[in-house]
Amino acid sequence: MDKVIRIGTRESQLALWQAHQVNDLLTAQGYRTELVPIKSEGDIDLVTPLYEIGVQGIFTKSLDIALLSGRIDIAVHSFKDVPTQLPQTIVTAAILERGPVKDLLVYKTNTDFLNQPDYIANIATSSVRRKAQWLRKFPHHQLHNLRGNVNTRLQKLAAENWDGAIFAAAGLERINVRPATSIELDWMLPAPAQGAVVAVCREDDEFCLKACAPFNHAHTALSTQIEREFLRTLMGGCTTPISAYAYIQNDTVFFEGEICSPDGTSFYSTSRQSAVGNAAGIGKDAAEEILAKGGAEIVAQIRNAK
């Protein structure tokens, strides 16, 4: 195989970890590869809150451009960062088997403040979804913006006078930086496709499509398809307070989804299950149920605020 597959990736340690997973899967099949680090817009501006930037695909756009211009052959993304509508002529080549999906609270000293109703804790996160869910449970807490890659955010947490910060478990565990001072937030529903890694390529690149096909994980592909369909039907975008999680057990798909107002004061949720063979459309059906319940008001509120 003389062709070298150029794999585009963001420059952070976590992004490089993800790209190396795809690289290793390709080289194990005998393909020749090369990693091409590319800086994304989301990595350049580390101050402005994501909800203020308001650009879908802020972490993927630069890689999409490199792919469409022929600078790279494959782009590797955290699937939760990918807009529900891919750019024209870009398609999914493979979705890797999913890693941890939950969110973690990394705390400074202890978690006693979680059980102290009068204590005003200071919690950091750049995620609109995490902020909304946290305020729903702890409406009196103060939330602070926290941008940057995983290591930068951990350093900022250590330097600031905050009680804790919220991270994706996958991000910390994949690069072995999860602190002992962390707990899983079982009650926090994750972002659609959280914990999944996707490789995309040009739709006419049969060579790369064939190369990636063997490591496409069917269960992860179905679960994330349902979650992203739910997101797309509601309004779409990784900077919205929409959560969804689907998993498969004994040939049955279990799904939970919700939308929360940005300040946490109102939310609508739903759950359902289906046989794997009948799972098509359940994400859309779940979203339509949420909209009918009153979720459309939250969607309108978010759109009007932008």
From TrEMBL:
DNA-binding as UniProt keyword: no
Reactions that this protein is recorded to catalyse: 4 porphobilinogen + H2O = hydroxymethylbilane + 4 NH4(+)
Domain Porphobilinogen deaminase C-terminal: 225-291
Cofactor: dipyrromethane
GO MF term list: hydroxymethylbilane synthase activity
Keywords: Porphyrin biosynthesis, Transferase
Pathway: Porphyrin-containing compound metabolism; protoporphyrin-IX biosynthesis; coproporphyrinogen-III from 5-aminolevulinate: step 2/4
Subunit structure, interactors included: Monomer.
NCBIfam families, alphabetized: hemC
Name this polypeptide is given: Hydroxymethylbilane synthase
